Amino acid sequence: MADNRISPAARIGRDVRIGTQTVVHDNVAIGDGVTIGDFCIIGHPASDELADRTLTLGPGSHVRSHSVVYEGSHFESRLETGHHVLIRERTRAGHNLRVGSFSDIEGDCRIGDYTRLHGYVHVGRGSELGSFVWIAALVTLFNDPLPPSEILRPPVLEDGSVVCGSSSVMPGAIMRRGSFAAAGTLVRGEIPPGAVVEGPDCERRGHVATLVDMESGVRHPWMRHDTVHFPEEARDRIERLGAEILASRFAGDGA
Amino acid sequence: MADNRISPAARIGRDVRIGTQTVVHDNVAIGDGVTIGDFCIIGHPASDELADRTLTLGPGSHVRSHSVVYEGSHFESRLETGHHVLIRERTRAGHNLRVGSFSDIEGDCRIGDYTRLHGYVHVGRGSELGSFVWIAALVTLFNDPLPPSEILRPPVLEDGSVVCGSSSVMPGAIMRRGSFAAAGTLVRGEIPPGAVVEGPDCERRGHVATLVDMESGVRHPWMRHDTVHFPEEARDRIERLGAEILASRFAGDGA
Amino acid sequence: MADNRISPAARIGRDVRIGTQTVVHDNVAIGDGVTIGDFCIIGHPASDELADRTLTLGPGSHVRSHSVVYEGSHFESRLETGHHVLIRERTRAGHNLRVGSFSDIEGDCRIGDYTRLHGYVHVGRGSELGSFVWIAALVTLFNDPLPPSEILRPPVLEDGSVVCGSSSVMPGAIMRRGSFAAAGTLVRGEIPPGAVVEGPDCERRGHVATLVDMESGVRHPWMRHDTVHFPEEARDRIERLGAEILASRFAGDGA
Predict the structure, then answer these.
(1) Partner C contacted by B142 (CB < 8 A)
(2) Which candidate, A37, A120, B81, B180, has a CA 20 to 30 Å from the CA of A220?
(3) What is the pTM assigned to this prediction?
(4) Longest Cα separation, chain C
């Protein structure tokens, strides 16, 4: 009975679990070891004509309940979503993207490896996120510089950049490698590598290497201490990225 | 089998498509050419006694998956919602209202024609929105001036007003025709026709006609350039509204 | 047919209504008179090993549609949720917690009696909320002081504290009894009993007893006027709490 919601044309790997009532459309390729929760829609039709309608959920992915993933997107491996997530068409992500509950990736986005979005993160259409990008809850990435208009100027977040909670990344903003926006920042313009910005005026507050939690003595950039949430195979890349961000402290205008 | 979730008492027009598992209650009138996605609840019972329990979804409406629309509301035609939308009871909207994913209209609202709400927009109970109002992602319209209290003082957004992302519209605020709140504004008090406001102190920044995107040369108000997202029949009204907003620049305190 | 989604091992009280398609897992204890909406998941498996996997929904609870409640949590009585709510594992709440639509309680939280969360409220893991706490829409409680890190420093909100809309409560913040954060506040540090704070710099603005709505003459703290939304049995406690908060005005640094 459950099977009539799963298209016979969908390509489904081994050891795949698909939850109660979940709908899988025909243009879907699901890798080995994928788990999909209840009440999901996988390969939801897009309203546009797409050159490639295939939705690829790479091996080891886990999509939690009530999520909707459109056709025409590609997730290399181990995509992990919370509940009630929406991902629109033509998004391409690398390995092990994590997307928190109630988040929305609006389509046409490019995302690297091991990037983490927390809950209620809204990624505007066309955004570019590198690898090891970390975005906290309730952050929005806007793309229209003069709303409403037809101008599309999505932001770019380079490798290892961090956006803390309740911040907004404004259209056209560029966060260079390892830059850091504190909670409640309106991120505008180009933020140099490793730079810290804060507040509604996006004021500069030194370099990420100067951020320290006094009570615990933990020091940023996070690549020094917070690698436990990443798979073993990513550790070398994290170490190299951390070293590059530290080096940016005394190179040019990153300080 | 699917039919036992659709009440036989519901009035359903021609060429209506209703998604997998969606529940349609008995007090619903669905117009011709309506599409409803999967896992929706249409005509959800209200906890209050309603004078008129009918939910009318006018012709050409499209309600996307996982949405909940309560009984006792009326949408004139072509309502379009994203996914995971919630609309409570006793809301009356005109033609072609669009409501983005994860948005919530809390009931007792009045909404004109061709108004657009993006994602995660929270419209407090009793709000009044005119026609051609445009509200970006993560905007909230509050209605309680001294929370928590029994005082209900919902905001009013007149025709053609624009609220950019991550702004909050405070209780009792009145945005006059064509006024514009930049991203991250706490909108308070009465904003004159065409006025631009910005920031946590809702500071005045001139008139919407002075807003220009330098790179593209595009100028506001948006009625000059962004009409492609509206149906043909609305163009005359948009043109007239744009002219009125431009005229407000040199009339009284709107500048 | 519907029954194969409800585990025969679940303990279900009298007069319980369970909606269309809703999934009830085996480790669930549902009290008398509980109502659960459509498309819910009750007792969702946690990824951690839990000492006690039981989810208890006390008598009179009402969980609205599309909500997900994890195993290993306890709600004493009359939990009431909106639609699309997510509650993670190991949360313990007292009587009559209300959680608005699209809200997310991230697990390991302690919550007292009669606390109210509005829509889109994100309660970070490990947060402690007292009784009669009131949190408006789009408020987030953060727990990581140096994101991303392994440090967990969730906030504490004592009895009768109020957080208005679009505010963020920062990691480690302590809101003492009856303190009040205006809309758009970044709440940091320790807020004395009954103190009012406001804005991105969390500036002090006197005592909650000085807050008045000029138009209606209604005065805070809310225990003086807004008791109608609480059940009869809570009135005595509300009165005592209001008196204590009023007394804090002239006691020490609460003013």
Answers:
(1) yes
(2) A120
(3) 0.96
(4) 64
User: Residue C252 has which token pair?
Assistant: 């020490």
The pairing of beta strand C186-187 with beta strand B190-191: unpaired
pLDDT tens sequence across B54-103? 999 999 999 999 999 999 999 999 999 999 999 999 999 999 999 999 99
Tokens read off for B210: 């002075």
Rounded to whole angstroms, the Cα distance separating A190 from A213 reads 26
HSE value, Cβ hemisphere, 13 Å, CA-based, for C72: 17
Q: Which residue of A has its CA nearest to C168?
A: A166
Q: What is the DSSP string of C221-235?
A: SGGGT--TTS-GGGH
Chain A CB contacts of C140 under 8 Å are: 137-138, 165-166
Cα(C20)–Cα(C17) distance, integer angstroms: 10
Structure tokens at B226: 């962004």
Within an 8 Å CB–CB cutoff, is residue C3 touching chain A? Answer: no
**For position C255, what pLDDT does the model report?**
42
Give pLDDT tens digits for B191-222: 999 999 999 899 999 999 999 999 999 999 99
Smallest Cα–Cα separation from A139: which of B26, C180, B183?
B183
Q: DSSP secondary structure string, C24-77? A: E-TTEEE-TT-EE-TT-EEEEPPSS--S---EEE-TT-EE-TT-EEESS-EEEE
Give the closest-approach CA distance of C148 to chain A in angstroms.
6
Peptide bond into C148 cis (omega under 30): yes
Are A122 and B138 in contact (CB < 8 Å)?
yes
Contact status, residue B58 vs residue B41, Cβ threshold 8 Å: no
Instruction: Give the integer Cα–Cα distance in Å for A97 and A114.
Output: 5
**Interface ipTM:** 0.95
Question: How far apart, in whole angstroms, are the C-alpha atoms of residue C181 and residue A19?
Answer: 42
Two structure tokens written together for C249: 């005005």
Tell how far CA B113 is from the center of its chain: 9
Phi, psi at B247, each rounded to 5°: -65, -30
pLDDT tens-place string over residues C155-212 = 999 999 999 999 999 999 999 999 999 999 999 999 999 999 999 899 999 999 999 9
Does the distance separating the beta carbons of A134 and C142 come in below 8 Å? no
Which of residues 33 through 72 in chain C touch A, CB cutoff 8 A? 39, 41, 44, 66, 68
DSSP A144: -
Please name which of A180, A190, A89 lies closest in space to residue A139, comparing C-alpha atoms.
A180
Q: What are the distances in angstroms from CA B233 to CA A54, A163, A232, B237?
A: 36, 43, 58, 8
Judge whether A204 and A196 are in contact, CB under 8 Å.
yes
Contacts of B111 (CB under 8 A, 6+ apart): B91, B92, B93, B94, B97, B105, B128, B129, B133
Q: Taken in order A92, A94, A96, A100, is the CA torsion positive or negative? A: negative
Task: Kindly state the tokens that stand for B74.
Answer: 């009326």
